[in-house]
């Protein structure tokens, strides 16, 4: 599928992801990390794309996708935040520009979670997670100006609206 990256680059990204063994293997995660390392190393390419933006929120921009994976550029406006969530698929992301605060949580039941740690994710940062979690977290742009991240999810964007499996409510620890 052609996205904002164009047909040739989208095809190269999707081929590099090695999804022939599925999206829950170590080889897939290593390939996804390599793709993200490459993309975050050329921020001018991503920043030059005509990416959608949403003031005060975040906008998802499909870069490439097929029946196994979807690759998104997310532009985070000032104050943008996700819900506290876990994923139904593998989730890899890399920071292109700006800073996002990632807060990790521990579930105390099926719908509530307590915060456990918090980290600032700056340009160049890359992380990959399998859906064997729980991998409960929230992402926020607490900074000034937009932040841009690239996300590679192990799902077909035609079959699922997002990678979120479960949403949680924060409670004090």
TrEMBL record:
GO MF, one annotated term: cysteine dioxygenase activity
Pfam families, alphabetized: CDO_I
Record bears the keyword Plastid: no
Binding site for Fe cation: 85, 87, 137
Cross-link 3'-(S-cysteinyl)-tyrosine (Cys-Tyr) placement: 91-153
Family: Belongs to the cysteine dioxygenase family.
Name this protein carries in UniProt: Cysteine dioxygenase type I
Species in which this protein is naturally found: Bosea lupini
Organism taxonomic ancestry: Bacteria, Pseudomonadati, Pseudomonadota, Alphaproteobacteria, Hyphomicrobiales
């Amino acid at each position: 599928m052609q996205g904002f990256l164009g047909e040739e680059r989208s095809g190269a990204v999707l081929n590099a992801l090695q999804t022939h063994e599925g999206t829950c293997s170590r080889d897939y995660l290593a390939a996804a990390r390599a793709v993200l390392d490459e993309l975050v190393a050329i921020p001018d390419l991503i920043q030059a794309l005509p990416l959608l933006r949403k003031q005060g929120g975040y906008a998802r921009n499909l870069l490439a996708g097929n029946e196994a994976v979807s690759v998104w550029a997310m532009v985070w406006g000032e104050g943008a935040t996700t819900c506290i969530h876990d994923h139904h698929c593998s989730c890899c992301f890399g920071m292109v520009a700006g800073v996002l605060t990632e807060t990790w949580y521990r579930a105390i039941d099926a719908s509530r979670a307590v915060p456990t740690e918090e980290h600032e994710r700056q340009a160049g940062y890359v992380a990959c997670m399998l859906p064997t979690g729980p991998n409960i977290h929230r992402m926020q742009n607490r900074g000034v100006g937009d932040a841009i991240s690239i996300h590679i999810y192990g799902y077909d964007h035609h079959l699922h609206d997002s990678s979120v499996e479960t949403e949680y409510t924060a409670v004090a620890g």
